[in-house]
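Can't paste images in this forum, so I'm doing it all in text. The chain is below; anyone willing to post the predicted structure tokens underneath?
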Amino acid sequence: SISLLALATPARSDEPPPDEDLRAQLRLTMAQLARHEAELQGLKAQLAARVEPPPAPRTEEHWYDRIHIRGYTQVRYNLPGAVRNEKLINEQADRSLGGNGGFLIRRARLIVFGDIHPRVSIYLQPDFASVIGEQLGVGILRDWYADVFLDRKKEFRLRIGQSKVPFGFENMQSSQNRLPLDRNDALNSAVKDERDLGIFFYWAPDHIRKRFKYLVDSGLKGSGDFGVVGVGIYNGQTANKIELNKYPHAVLRVTWPFEIGNQILEIGGGGYYGVATVKTEAAPDGIPFTSTRKNNTFQDGRGHVTVVLYPKPFGFVFEYN
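Text version of the structure:
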């Protein structure tokens, strides 16, 4: 019959075997899947480029997050017999001089500082190594002031409170980074403890403020940022002393750190003037002071010049007043 004849007809030699046809279809399907996968990845990339990432969660900043605490201590020991004159004393610096010497906490500072507002910063520094009479380790106020910045770049500012009087270079240096433990008497005798209560105006361009900061942070023993120009008025009776007359002191200081090659040369000068009143009392040796004036008041004024070549590797400090 015809059906039997069709089954008996041998396969044509030019037709591929059934398994080869399946493999071809599989390869075609895999290639098509690969194309679809590539297109899908491209669409995902385009979508990611168009969609912005979600903003990071904002954390609320508090004023106390911007307040910092630091401090330092300096301890001395004078060898017995190193100072042969027992009457050689230093009321303003090393109180362990004279007598039998011994150990002395020269400074014990605890500093609280920071920004309480974008344009207001505070600096509070008590010292717990002061001396009153025979009592050591007395806490006393050194710095207690606020800086009020008058512009966004913080080039102009007012310093209000008890702070350093801008007179000289070594007087401005912090005791924690100055090379000698104590300052020279020539300029330091102008303002006892370097500080007084008043209001001061400071100005320095932004790039010079950064230079002042570099001179401290790099270990070059800079004086700190007291402006290119510093001017102000203060009591004139020195720190932690009540004003004894109605005339304040006025002070002016101008300085500029020049870049010369790889070194920095700072040249400055200034002065102060006012009226000071001396409070008569018994001297350390028990002999009372005597005065030739009725009200113990006199004119008090000084001027100074400063030249500092910062050490890279060698330098010098010259001051005259």
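The CA atoms of residues 212 and 224 lie 6 Å apart. Helices lie at 2-8, 18-50, 185-188, 206-217.
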